[in-house]
Design a protein that fits this description.
2 copies of one chain form a homodimer. The first copy, chain A, is an alpha/beta fold and 229 residues long. The first copy, chain A, has 2 domains: 6-126, Tetrapyrrole methylase, N-terminal domain (Cobalt-precorrin-4 Transmethylase, domain 1), CATH 3.40.1010.10; 131-227, Methyltransferase, Cobalt-precorrin-4 Transmethylase, Domain 2 (2-Layer Sandwich), CATH 3.30.950.10. The first copy, chain A, has helices at residues 21-29, 48-54, 74-90, 109-118, 131-139, 159-167, 183-189, 211-215; strands at 6-10, 32-37, 39-41, 44-46, 62-66, 95-99, 123-126, 149-154, 170-175, 194-198, 206-208, 223-227. In chain A, the strands form 3 sheets. A 5-stranded parallel β-sheet of chain A has the order 5-2-6-1-7, with helices on both faces. A 5-stranded mixed β-sheet of chain A has the order 8-9-12-10-11, with helices on both faces. Chains A, B: GO terms for molecular function: precorrin-2 C20-methyltransferase activity. Chains A, B: It comes from Marinifilum flexuosum. Chains A, B: InterPro entries: 4pyrrol_Mease, 4pyrrol_Methylase_sf, 4pyrrole_Mease_sub1, 4pyrrole_Mease_sub2, CobI/CbiL, CobI/CbiL/CobIJ_dom.
Chain lengths: 229, 229
């Protein structure tokens, strides 16, 4: 039997209607869909991708790929995930793997794709809207324009790294910002406008550009900030 | 009569199927669609947005907004474009303005939005996939992953600016790269892999990661390059 095809499908930032027409079609036409899940606890699957996927009412069978969010044993978890996918591809199935946001922008799918390419699997990727782009739309303000530069950093090591990036006259996006504490103290010292968002595109969405509001928040994993040039 | 609503709808990078479900619905439900056109010559409208739009078979009436791509008199052209839109909003029409790529990422719509907000128009923005994200999918390689940073620059003043950005260990995206000549000479000196693309998502798409191929190309306006970290 010939090997099935692997297709990476980006779901977009959270609002199920922000998937592309092409992405939705690919999910409908796949034989099987895998979605990354951070854990399965007492039969409850913790997966932001699945939260989006289930709202699309796609009839294709779907299964979780457990990939914990901790940095530990990352390679092993990716390898295990790819092995599960590979088993299905070997049965001749065309398999879709979904990602929240885009599929190749700070995404788990990038690691899966590399393993699939090394195993000579026929691959295709359907892009999607990254969270920071959807945040721009929610904030109703250009993320960047003219010849202004943009910098995106993820999982910053400390505020020094952010301060350094702010010295240049560019818009700065910080992803996985929850790795740092005391954002409100830091932002108070800066002379820049910002837009902070949690769980963009979901019913739990919360956003603010007021540092006083941020003082009271516990920043969750699905949050990001745009600090404007 | 009460003022109509303005909705910015991102069309995505070129492939008409890369519009979102939400964007398509908004176009179907609008009373009128405006699309930016760089010129109208002998009854021929030059508009990349319209090239995408017409493939979507939306029945809503559509009209061009002429905004030349030259830097000259930019403000005047935006103001004229907004005045045309405002006239229709005053008739109570709900007006969609489309953008190729995203609506607030190096887009004309950002300027229109600011004018509309100042005129107290009710606005909404539906995001879309920027060209560099679609380029990542075409190249089948992660744009960025882990805690790697990304920088995007547009209309660079010279190769010095690009060289400076490459000193940091980050992925670099250069938009409107056609403002500079001799890309192949520059890239030959760098020890970085890259992915160059023209007219992403259209039948005229061309891409390469080989500097020898680039030597022979005349770089068009709709092109960009990702230089990997």
């Amino acid at each position: 039997m010939s090997l099935g095809k692997l297709i990476g499908v980006a779901l977009g930032p959270g609002d199920p209607e922000l998937i592309t027409l092409k992405g939705l079609k690919a999910l409908q036409n796949a034989d099987l869909i895998f979605y990354p899940a951070s854990s399965i606890k007492e039969w409850k699957v913790i997966s932001f991708s699945y939260d989006i996927l289930k709202q699309l009412n796609v009839e294709t069978e779907s299964l979780p790929l457990v990939i914990p969010m901790t940095g530990k044993n990352r390679e092993m978890h990716y390898q295990k995930a790819f092995d599960e996918i590979h088993e299905e591809l070997k049965k001749g199935k065309n398999v879709a793997v979904v990602s929240e946001g885009d599929a190749l922008f700070y995404s788990t799918f990038g690691y899966i794709l590399k393993m699939a390419q090394e195993a000579n699997v026929d691959c295709k990727v359907i892009p999607g809207i990254p969270a920071f782009i959807a945040t721009g739309a929610e904030g109703e303000k250009p993320v960047t324009e003219g010849n202004q530069a943009l910098k995106v950093i993820a999982r910053p090591n400390g505020f020094e790294e952010i301060e350094e990036a702010l010295k240049e006259n560019q818009t700065l996006v910080v992803m996985k910002m929850s790795v740092l504490d005391n954002w409100s103290d830091f932002l108070e010292k800066q002379n820049r406008s910002f837009f902070y968002i949690e769980r963009v595109g979901t019913p739990q969405q919360y956003s603010t550009s007021d540092v006083q509001d941020l003082k009271l928040r516990t920043i969750p994993y699905f949050s990001l900030i745009i600090i404007y040039a």
